[in-house]
Amino acid sequence: MIPVDFDYYKPESIEEAARLHEQLDRQKMLPLYYSGGTEIITLLRLDLIQTKAVIDIKAIHECREHILGEDYLVLGSSLTLTQIEERNAFPLLTSVSKEIADHTARNKITLGGNICGEIFYREAVLPLLLTDSLFVIGGPQGVKILPAHEAFQQTMQLGRGEFLIQTLTRKDFLGMPYMSVKIRQQWETGYPLVTIAALKAKGEIRAAFSGLCSFPFRSKRMEDELNRKDGTLDVRMDRALRHIPAPVLNDIEGSAEYRLFVLKNTLTDILTVWEVEQNA
Amino acid sequence: MPETNKKVLILSVNDEDKDIVFRPADTLLGVLRGKLGLTGAKPGCLNGDCGACTVLVDGIPMKSCIMLAIEAEGHKVTTIEGLINTKTQASFIKHFAFQCGYCTPGFIMVCHSLAEKQPHADKAVIKEWMQSNICRCTSYQEIEEAVASILAEE
Ligand SMILES: Cc1cc2nc3c(=O)[nH]c(=O)nc-3n(C[C@H](O)[C@H](O)[C@H](O)COP(=O)(O)OP(=O)(O)OC[C@H]3O[C@@H](n4cnc5c(N)ncnc54)[C@H](O)[C@@H]3O)c2cc1C
Ligand code: FES
Ligand code: FES
């Protein structure tokens, strides 16, 4: 049971949602955009967040769009992870998504909720970072479009009252070779020790990570080292790992040392497969 | 917005419309058990981890502890009480696919939905769907047999 009360709003347009947020914010209602709601319900029940009003964005048409257009794949932020998997227009995203939570939970968890949530793994953002996707963001100032790497830096960079409406991914990225590997401490569902998503774009390797640091990230500096042609794989790997952008997590899921060990082995496996393929 | 002032919710549960006096903060699980007396969906972890609270919403399995009752308005909710005399129920009994039975309604809901939506599901899909639920008594072997027999029949 959720021990506190809140009001529930279900606007049908971006403008209405943004207006409501502004109004409720002024009234000190601590409004929250509500998508799948799974995290909001859980954190409210544990008294870890506060709100007196939630704004459910699932009735906003743009947030439900799922279109493979001429140039872009459009994914509404309120699509559930299983809806995205079933359509499978973006195989790398499907592959990462299928490892998040469990199938029934993914019938409720949404793309936007995963990326904008407090729970820091946010694994669904990895494929979007790797494919230079665009994020469509709405708010009191209207709608804007930002590259994923600007909109998402450790967390979603949203101004007051802003929310994620959609992501746009260029179609040419959708068919590129990819790999994603999620290593857990145990079991076959649950949060990652490390998740690695990798894409081969025009012969260059791109890689993004979750569970390694306290935020998911893609590092161009790590990629540059991985793509250098000099040195053995082992040397390139060591050089790349020097550019991990923050302390490696050292927690009950696994020590920093163990995470690095797992990361290095998994990345080595991925690169080996691709380089063998390339040289074949 | 009208939603916020609503005090009464009309929910379609097991093919019957029910008027419910509710708070927007009520979870679907809370309303089913506390307001409708449908105690088949079980509270377990309340975090979305265990699956004991699973119901179907428009035929899709949902963990009712992480869903607000108001979100179910306009949709068809099915609980374990709505699956009486189904093949899924019979199969779980035939295969003794339970010990204490606490997790059983959740497993049956997922199995029922899978059989309806993907009657030819392969082993990987069956595993993916069924991994959403946890059985503390570890009746997994029997549950697997019950699920396999339902899908084989479909
Ligand atoms: C059983 C379970 C297992 C999980 N396992 C994993 C896992 O393996 N990997 C992983 O990465 N995550 C995992 N999660 C975490 C889950 O992905 C996040 O909690 C996610 O936020 C849930 O999505 P939601 O749509 O329900 O979010 P909501 O509860 O709706 O929202 C979460 C937060 O994001 C904000 N928000 C939502 N949508 C938007 C939007 N469009 N624009 C701006 N803000 C928004 C909300 O205001 C809120 O603060 C798991 C969760 C559960 C319940
Ligand atoms: S009680 Fe809902 S998933 Fe455990
Ligand atoms: S039969 Fe007891 S929890 Fe599954």
Summary?
Chain A has 280 residues and is of the alpha+beta class. Chain A is built from 13 helices and 14 strands.
CATH topology of the largest domain in chain A: Uridine Diphospho-n-acetylenolpyruvylglucosamine Reductase, domain 3
The whole-number mean of residue pLDDT values of chain B reads: 93
Averaged pLDDT of chain A: 95
Secondary structure: number of strands of chain A? 14
Name of the CATH architecture of the largest domain in chain A: 2-Layer Sandwich
How would you name the oligomeric state of the polypeptide chains in this document? heterodimer
Q: How much is the radius of gyration of chain A in Å?
A: 19 Å
Q: What number of domains of chain A?
A: 3
Structural class of chain B: alpha+beta
Question: Residue share in helices of chain B?
Answer: 25-40%
pLDDT under 50 segments of chain A (min length 5)?
Answer: none
Largest sheet: spatial strand order of chain A: 4-5-10-6-7
Please summarize the sheet with the most strands of chain B: 5 strands, mixed
Q: Give me the side-by-side strand order of the main sheet of chain B.
A: 2-1-5-3-4
Strand fraction of chain B equals 5-15%
Tell me the series of helices and strands of chain A, N- to C-terminal: EHEHEHEEHHHHHEEHEEEHEEEEHHH
CATH topological fold name of the largest domain in chain B: Ubiquitin-like (UB roll)
The stretches of 5 or more residues of chain B where confidence is low (pLDDT under 50) are none
Could you explain how this protein is built, in words?
- The complex is a heterodimer of chains A (280) and B (154).
- Chain A has 280 residues and is of the alpha+beta class.
- Chain A has 13 helices and 14 strands.
- In chain A, 37% of the residues lie in helices and 23% in strands.
- The radius of gyration of chain A is 19 Å and the shape is globular.
- The N and C termini of chain A lie far apart (59 Å).
- With 154 residues, chain B is of the alpha+beta class.
- Chain B has two domains: 7-81, Ubiquitin-like (UB roll), CATH 3.10.20; 85-153, [2Fe-2S]-binding domain (DNA polymerase, domain 1).
- Chain B has helices at residues 2-5, 28-35, 87-94, 104-117, 123-130, 140-153; strands spanning 8-13, 16-21, 54-57, 60-63, 76-78.
- In chain B, a hairpin with a 2-residue loop joins strand 3 (54-57) and strand 4.
- In chain B, helix 3 crosses helix 6 (140-153) and helix 4 runs parallel beside helix 6.
- The longest helix of chain B has 14 residues, at 104-117.
- Chain B is elongated.
- The A-B interface holds A 1-2, 4-11, 20, 37-38, 41-42, 44-45, 53-54, 56, 58, 98, 101-105, 107-108, 188-189 and B 1, 3-4, 23-27, 30, 46-48, 51, 54, 60-63, 65-68, 70-71, 110, 128-129, 131-133.
- The structure holds flavin-adenine dinucleotide and FE2/S2 (inorganic) cluster (FES) (2 copies).
- One FE2/S2 (inorganic) cluster is lined by residues 98-103, 135-137, 139 of chain B.
